[in-house]
Amino acid sequence: MQALRDAVVAREEAWDRAVEREENYRQQLARLSAETVTTRHLADSKQNELETLKITLLEREAELKATQKDLLSLEKIIVKLEKHQRELEEASPETKLFPVSGNERKTIDEIVRKQARIKPKLKPRPKGSSSTPQSLQGSPRSAARTPRDHAGSANCSSIF
User: Fold this and answer.
1) Range of the domain at 106
2) Which of 37, 56, 59, 138 has its CA 20 to 30 A from that of 18?
3) What is the pLDDT of residues 105-123, one digit of tens each?
């Protein structure tokens, strides 16, 4: 009889341990489910953020391509004007007029309008940061510019 009582007590203790283990497993499952939901929300928000950044990057890339195209047009006009200026200076050093065709003038005005629209979109730089990156401030190109280069670019609106 004592053996049966001991067996029943052992079974009850084993049952209590099994119930306690099951409760621990349920708590762990509930915690893991909550972590899974949180992880899914984070993944979704990061995915949305990446999509937004992708769209922004594509827009900026399109703006960059358009600006590069505009720069190429302006460079062609500048080369033409510099060539014409050299010809005029060789012919008569006093004359400083630059002929700009109507099409070139239209191109320049259109680029200026585009740039005026784009500039407000750009974020202002935080105080303390310079307008040019550190790596470009002492570049050979900037050091190679002569005073004539600076004087020629300072008043380009008067040549049109």
Assistant:
1) 2-121
2) 37
3) 788 888 888 887 876 655 5
